[in-house]
Amino acid sequence: SSHLIPVTDSIASTGLGKEKGVIVVSEAVCQQIMGRADAFVAVQNVFSAMARHTAYNFPVIREAIGHADALYGFKSGFDRDGMVLGLKSGGYWPGNSEKQLTNHQSTIILFDPDTGKLASLIGGNYLTAIRTAASSAVSINHLARKASKTLGIIGAGHQSGYQLQAALDQRSFEKVVAWNNDASKLTKLAKICEERSLPFESVNRETLCAQSDVIITITSAFEALIKQEWIKPGTHIACMGTDTKGKQEVDARLFSNATVFTDELAQSITIGEAQHAVSAELIQSNDIIPIGDVINSTHPGRTSDKEITLFDGTGVGLQDLAVASAAVELAEVQGQANYFNL
Ligand code: NAD
């Protein structure tokens, strides 16, 4: 905005920490500098810190603002290990697509934890996609069988391509099967597989479950798309789409015969996939294991090849702050950050 005054080049290049001004990292720069491996490390570290209680999320705010049908809110938290304090602000503006804009809009703001001063502004749309993909990838890394060969993807929306790419980094998958309620959208996933010379097949949901060693669900569905009976022993399922009260992707009965993990317990039982199983008393909240405990080796994770593991990835603010902080570091190192004084 007009309130942002560029710092002179001489000041910007001194590298004197807080003297540099506010660091701005644009959407375009985030896409250029931040890869899947960077997002994986950032998200894994912050899940670990959450389980050690050195990082915590603040209550989420989400409001219908009564204008433009918009849902606006923010997710915030503090990571004492990483010294990362801030918030992700944004929401959902359904009319944006007519304006050639993304309906989901996010901006991340980081503050200096020592002073509360504004430290950086980072475009949050691309980072949201890669931090969400990194979350299911972390779950696959720690919980899927090493010999997993077939990956199943349910959903073909904005997040799905990022999910597919990040999952493929984790195991030597030999085939991808996918389902979407609008099958024409699957071409995007087919193209990713073609680029990696991986066989791809569009299948029905029951076949997908019968073939897959790892399944990712990433839809905005409000009913179970997967039946408990369809899931074979040894499967790892990452439920990534349910992030709101009322949404659902899998049969709640699956929670009874799976070992259940999550990013954050409080969200899992209220707005995550586990909300249905908990309210139906199929499981209790203390049956759900923070994935950070597996990362920290305080929980063994998967203990047999027959075990079904389920990860309820609800999406927490600390993931956004973690990838944003990494993006700032990378942008500075690569000379891609802009500096402003307010
Ligand atoms: P999108 O709108 O681009 O895609 C939605 C997908 O769901 C499409 O494939 C659509 O065909 C499918 N779908 C919609 N209604 C369905 C139904 N009733 N049955 C089956 N499929 C249905 O959305 P997106 O950006 O790809 O996000 C997908 C989901 O993930 C959303 O629910 C979103 O809120 C959630 N999300 C979660 C996190 C997280 O951290 N866990 C982060 C971002 C998005």
Helix content: 25-40%
Largest sheet: 9 strands, mixed
Please report the number of helical segments.
Answer: 11
Bound molecule types: nicotinamide-adenine-dinucleotide
Stretches where pLDDT falls below 50 for ≥5 residues? 1-5, 7-18
Overall 3D form: globular
- Number-wise, the strands total 19
The whole-number mean of residue pLDDT values reads 94
Based on helices, strands and strand pairing, what is the structural class? alpha/beta
Succession of helices and strands: EHEHHEEEEEEHEHEHEHEEEEEHHEHEHE
> Radius of gyration in whole Å, from Cα?
20 Å
How much strand?
25-35%
C-alpha end-to-end distance: 10 Å
Report on this model:
This protein is α/β, with parallel strands linked by helices and about 350 residues long. The chain contains eleven helices and 19 strands. Strands 1, 2, 3, 4, 5, 6, 7, 8 and 19 form a nine-stranded mixed sheet that branches. Strand 4 (about 60-65) and strand 5 form a beta hairpin. Helix 3 (about 35-50) crosses helix 4, helix 3 crosses helix 11 (about 315-335) and helix 4 (about 125-145) packs parallel to helix 5. The radius of gyration is 20 Å and the shape is globular. The N and C termini lie close together (about 10 Å). Residues about 1-5 and about 5-20 have low confidence and may be disordered. Bound molecules: nicotinamide-adenine-dinucleotide. Nicotinamide-adenine-dinucleotide binds near residues 132, 155, 158, 221 and 313.
